[in-house]
Amino acid sequence: MIEWFNDPATWTGLVQIVIADILLSGDNALVIALACRSLPAHQQKRAIIFGGAAAIGLRVTLTAFAVYLLTLPFLKLVGGLLLLWIAVKLLLPEEDHGDGIKGQGNMWAAIKTIVLADLVMSVDNVLAVAGAADGDIALLIIGLLLSIPLIIYGSTMILKLIARFPLIITLGAAMLGYIGGEMLVGDAKVVPWVEANAPMLHTLVPILGAILVVALGKVFAAKPAAKVVDLAADDRQAN
Questions:
Q1: 23: helix, coil or strand?
Q2: What residue spans define the domains of the chain?
Q3: How buried is residue 87: exposed, middle or buried, by Cβ count under 10 Å (0-12/13-18/19+)?
Q4: pTM of the model
Q5: What H or E segment, with its residue span, contains residue 7?
Q6: CA angle 38–40–41, rounded 5-degree value
Q7: Count helices and strands in the chain by DSSP H and E runs
Q8: Do 90 and 169 form a contact (C-beta atoms < 8 A)?
């Protein structure tokens, strides 16, 4: 064990894992911030910590099976569709927090969103981290654990920016839609057909994914508002 810590290769691999995970986790930090933005302030920190830690734990498991996962047919296609749905969901209006029990439920809902989004977006990321670990699971776990505080800090900073600039919510969801589009045309079963018949889809589909997410988010967000207006009109007529 002491020799393992004294080996320069251990520390080199550790640094590589942390750097790779941070560079590849910018979008994950954004998801964490978006998922937690509707929570009461006292629950945001807990959701960020629990959600970030759970996502990292899941990433350790994914990385251990990275090569096998990428051989599954249509994995990225399904993941891309799921990410588009998550992005639209993140654009929906914030719900009233209500009492403490409901707020607790919202916190766990945010954590589930964080973990699910991280699972979808980590399919490619885990390969870089797995390469840096070079098969050393202990090194992988330590490196990813070290990156948790940095991801949490990044999520907290994005939350503060969202409070000042709400447009970040739309831009962030659009970015997730773009990533989802990239996954759709990046699936191993789809790439050969796209490259042979319509290579422009590699550029077009991600852009359409971003536009679709924002458009659907606006449409779904407008429906509750329309219902409120209708109810108010009915009340006035009744009186």
A1: helix
A2: 2-238
A3: buried
A4: 0.67
A5: none
A6: 110
A7: 11, 0
A8: yes
